[in-house]
Amino acid sequence: MMGSLLLAVIYLIFVSLGLPDSLLGSGWPSMQVDFGVPSSHAGYVSMTISLMTVISALASPRLIRRFQTQWIVIVSIGMTVLGLLGFSFCGSYGALFLFAIPYGLGAGAVDAAINNYVALHYPSSVMNFLHCFYGVGAMISPFIMSMALKMAMWNDGYRWTAFLQMGILLIVIISLPLWKAGQAEVKEESPGSAGIQETLKVPGVIPTLTAFFACCSGEATCSLWTPSYFASTKAGLDAQTVASFGSLIFGGLMLGRLISGFISNRLGDRMMIRLGICVEFAGILLVALPLKGYLPAAVGFAVIGTGLGPVYPAIQHMAPVNFGKRYSSSVIGLQMASAYIGTTLMPMVFGHIQQAVGIRIMPYWILLFAVLNLTFLEFAYRLVANGGKKHEYKR
Length: 395
Fold this sequence. Notes:
CATH architecture: Up-down Bundle
Number of helices: 19
Strand content: under 5%
Oligomer: single chain
Shape: globular
Distance between the termini: 35 Å
Mean pLDDT: 83
Number of strands: 0
Order of helices and strands: HHHHHHHHHHHHHHHHHHH
Low-confidence stretches: 185-191, 388-395
Largest sheet: none
């Protein structure tokens, strides 16, 4: 019973991780006007947030050894609350960068720690359901922003989301007694774990990190630029409707992970990745087709998210079997860092490209990263097999 309650709290923590991630993309078309800056400047703010998360993810092994996981969770959520409230009071573009620091630092360490714990102790279905709840949070916040734009201002979207985060933080604090048993299990995995330099030498690790970078680069581009894509390519849409399109990719992610949670134990992680990327290709085609109206593109972005849904959790869930428990925590920490490097750099790079050649290039940009993701994962599987690892996953 206690274990089930703790798992429920962990699911709620992933809702809190998703809440801040889609706000910038949803609110940026209105924020850009208020601040009087070019559309590409969203990339700099996103880059700062992601850079802070990279730092937090790389520091996670040391933090986990020094502090109990529940306190890392509490401090991390508290930092995101500070960042969200800070954004809500920003009156200038430059002020965003100050509060981007706690905004980003609040995600990395808790994300890496909980992902490693679930990968070691739970089946693939739990990992997919866990990341499904991330999608719940990321899908809720664009609607909060949409309501704020309709009823008040974009600032209130950040403020209302901060209040919701405070509620989750209170629940985590109340749940502190549940963590005592779980904490002992987490600490059992820490002694003897490999360092980063040693882990990078393991066959298949670097291609896996490259694939993870590509996966998250495409996802982050969608999460930040989808509302701007509709604002620039589909005439006649109001600001509230445009902001709500920020939930398309996250709604798809949630659906993809929900479906995967029911079938991944039967099909295996590798097959789920291959099927997911094929679905992603179909969504990219829908967005790229020169069809009238916004509905085909909206469906396309939702399908892209559905395809991406099982990829992220499946790659992480494979880490203990592909590379062994000794390396799993370092591999997952490096994967998180690779993910955040992708989310740091690629939306900003795309921002400059679309400003120069037009945002209609977006589906082809996403296609590039989908191909890279699939190619490097297949290469990693071969290296792992040649390295003598025995796989428990169905092919």
